[in-house]
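Can anyone check this?
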Amino acid sequence: MVEPADRLSLYRRFRPQRFGDVIGQDLVVATLRRAVAGGKLGHAYLFAGQRGVGKTSVARILARAANCLAPEEGEPCNRCESCRRILAGQSLDVVEIDGASNRGVDQIRQLREEVAYLPAGSQRKVYIIDEVHMLTGEAFNALLKTLEEPPPHVLFIFATTEPHKVPATVLSRCQAFEFGPIGEEAIARVLQTVAQAEGIALAPGAAALIARRSRGALRDALVVLDQLGHAGEVTEEAVVDLLGIPPLSLVDGFLDALVGRNADGALTAVGELSARGRDLALFLEEAAGRARDRIIAGEAPLIPIAQRLIEVRGELGRAFSRRLHVELAIVALCGPPQRRAVPPSPVPHVGEALPLRNPPRAAPSAAPQQVQLGAPAKEKQSPPGTAWEAMLAAILEERVSVAAFLHPAEATWADGLLTIRLPEDCGYHYESLREPAVHGYVEGMAQKFFSPLLAVQLVWAGGTPKPTLEEGARILAEALEGTILREGTDGNR
């Protein structure tokens, strides 16, 4: 039973019915029309190409043209009895088989038995096998004998998105046609035509955006239009919300930040997308595609950036944290962001000494020192300033991942204790920096830039309390290999 036209989806309702209606496959349809008009049809055809470009539609048109009682220069008339039966799905001589669900040798053996019978009321029996690459090896072997010596009244049309999976013995017995992706401008024109016919308000920018995202598949574009058309006017904002496509302004701003080595701007763009739950893989694809367009327009500095974006997109499938992986790549391209440290005080307090960029390390004491609880050493205090900047720059050159963990942190240096405070949303950074090997590495680098440095303390705003005086004394004692003296009521330690 055929469904009413008004209940069909747009891509089915506007399926091409003649070779001349097919969009973007001019060479294929011209060759097939000449073969039909000249009575020189082959016995087997293979249509290969990505999804949604018209392979099955052309196969159905060819099936009607091969059986049409009054063909018009190779086109099916769609009016004769044969064409009407095929269009209504009532012809016994045109059989469509889904290769994915009928892939076994038993189904192909049954097909071999059927092809021996003459057509019921048509000139040819036509077998359309979609996704033919899904057939098993045994099924292909069973089909091969029929392809070698087919009955004169049989026409095979195979469609596949993966022709490399079809055995060479089968390919060599077919006339193969490659269906290319449909151009964006052609898809946009079809969308406008369909929208006008259906009374859908479609903004030109929205049509272009749908066409770009469909990546050459007209069917996919019509599905999106069908989905958005029920909600009223189809605008660019509606397309962005449905497909999760990042706005062009955001993509251009991200690329400009990478070219200008502005890590802050690039990281902010990634942070906004993550906060809204957007797919970073899709964002990188859009960024790489936009970089390609700008490179062709003459922006040569984007060439290495586009190459790196493509590499990072390929690596995301193995990344345990997509956001972290992308952020590390940004820091590697641009260097540490400028927002990562507490800015130095414009006027230091009296008696404070600014830290040296490369101060000498203090010689270790010959004997263990003792720290009196309640009487900490009175050392000078200074904001980290330039020393923290230099330290992060040095870490970036050696270990990019550690620099990325440290870049959101705020640092303070007082009484020989360097305190690194991480924001509440940086729990993973905190846990990573607490790893003994990583923490030891950070302490070793800090010794080169802060003097005197007794210890490095990590603090996380999401759950780590501010160290008490006793804890601070313990940290200092461990750093100095000393002991803590406690005064009791009886004078004992």
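Reply from J.R.: I decoded it. The chain has four domains: 5-179, 184-243, 248-334, 370-485.
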